[in-house]
Write a structure and sequence with these properties.
Largest interface: A-B, 77 and 77 residues
CATH superfamily of the largest domain in chain A: Tetracycline Repressor, domain 2
Distance between the termini of chain A: 56 Å
Number of strands of chain A: 0
Radius of gyration of chain A: 22 Å
Structural class of chain A: mainly alpha
Strand content of chain A: under 5%
Oligomer: homodimer
Shape of chain A: flat
CATH class of the largest domain in chain A: Mainly Alpha
DNA sequence: ACCTGAACACCGTTCAAGT
DNA sequence: ACCTGAACACCGTTCAAGT
């Protein structure tokens, strides 16, 4: 009965835009400052530690004052996710789409690692703002340079984003010690694995136990490049399309 | 100061294993039943609606009784994620790895769509249980059949999982109406896009506005298959390895 | 126009007490 | 061994009142 979907947060700008000139000399609270504080808090304590009350306390202000600059907590989360997306450095195009795609992927990874608490938000939230599309723009530019026609480029874009976000969220939300599976346990549980019908997992246990995230990420990017190469190669035939 | 990482939840079995025989005739509460109810609740109302108190109320029991069968709320969430993973149907191998890989991906998608609220949990939570490795086993079996050596298979596995989870979480957490971007707004904002330096986004707006999730997913799977084909093809040379 | 405090309807979890 | 209620320390958000 209780609809709980995130609000569209679409084209309409925030209902509570701050005044233009400085607000008469008050506390100087601002949507921007609220997000700044929220970002710092999440970076230090994690998403779960973000509460409107705690955020207000950190800012030395009453909890309810925040609602003058931000619709609600969900809007704060959306804002953080959009900031992350917007802060991804767009690498200059070199003309070598392989290199450019790799560079973009690395940029993405860098900001995700810098803000591990925010990264998962990017995946779940629907972000319609112009800011949030910076990555898409960069990726589409690269694909255009590679000769991928616009319609197909959109599909490729979605494929790339799915991998990037999937890989990065997995990475940032696995603790620094862990490696995606129970590192210590996997080896000893070898017999348990085999009796559970997990033959192949048992056989690969040694490799599953270790995980170099950077290398793994690069491997994935290589796979994407390979897929794209195959796609471009196969369309060599009907490529002559100049009207 | 406040560590809030999810607990390891590793090799050690739940601290609160239920009695073996029926519990003397009490309410018959069980970890399994708790998870059943939690699953139903999340499927109907969404993750945000899951609370220990509400869950207990639905089960007609005191809130604290749950803690006799479940460590805490996080453990419930972990349990749900593991159930999702475990419930993925493992397709029988046909010998055609392309077909088998596609079938596995589709199985994954089907359970994700059946439990949209749970899918995102799979990504963020560290799942070390044997149950959760069913998908990995299936994927590794397929890759083995395709002739991918164990060590490389693990990398490929991680690539596949990153894409699958990234794509599916994106799909389930975009509302049924929305399509990943602001469907209605994108067309009108064409000029805004161009002035924002989002040339390529503007050009692709028409294609970005529409999103057939099923087709998009299939496209991604095709890309994975293509990447794998390229990889297998290039190792044709040193393939003769029979001792 | 912005800030504030009290208030409402919730949370997860601990603990001592029951059976 | 399991269940229970009271209690603690929190939440997000509304609303009427302040300046």
């Amino acid at each position: 009965m209780k609809r709980h979907r995130a609000p569209p947060s679409g084209a309409a700008p925030s209902r509570t835009a701050p005044r233009r000139g400085r607000p008469k000399g008050g506390t100087g609270l601002t949507r921007e400052k609220v997000l700044d504080a929220a970002l710092a808090l999440v970076d230090q304590e994690g998403v779960d530690a973000l509460s409107m009350r705690g955020l207000a306390a950190v800012m030395g202000v009453d909890a309810m004052s925040l609602y003058n600059h931000v619709d609600n907590k969900d809007a704060v989360l959306d804002g953080l996710a959009e900031r992350l997306l917007a802060s991804i450095e767009r690498p200059v195009l070199t003309g070598d789409w392989r290199r450019d795609l790799r560079a973009l992927a690395l940029s993405f990874r860098q900001v995700a690692l810098r803000h591990p608490g925010i990264a998962p938000l990017v995946l779940t939230r629907q972000l319609g703002s112009l800011q949030a599309m910076a990555v898409s723009e960069a990726a589409l530019a690269t694909l255009d340079a590679a000769g991928v026609p616009p319609k197909e480029a959109v599909h490729v874009l979605r494929f790339i984003l799915a991998f990037l976000i999937g890989a990065l969220v997995r990475e940032v939300s696995s603790g620094p010690t862990f490696s995606g599976l129970d590192l210590d346990g996997l080896a000893e549980r070898h017999t348990a694995l085999k009796t559970s019908g997990l033959r192949h997992v048992a056989r690969a246990a040694r490799h599953l136990a270790a995980c170099d995230h950077a290398a793994e990420f690069e491997f994935g990017v290589d796979m994407m490049v390979a897929a794209l190469e195959a796609r471009l190669g196969s369309s060599r035939g009907p490529k002559r399309r100049a009207k």
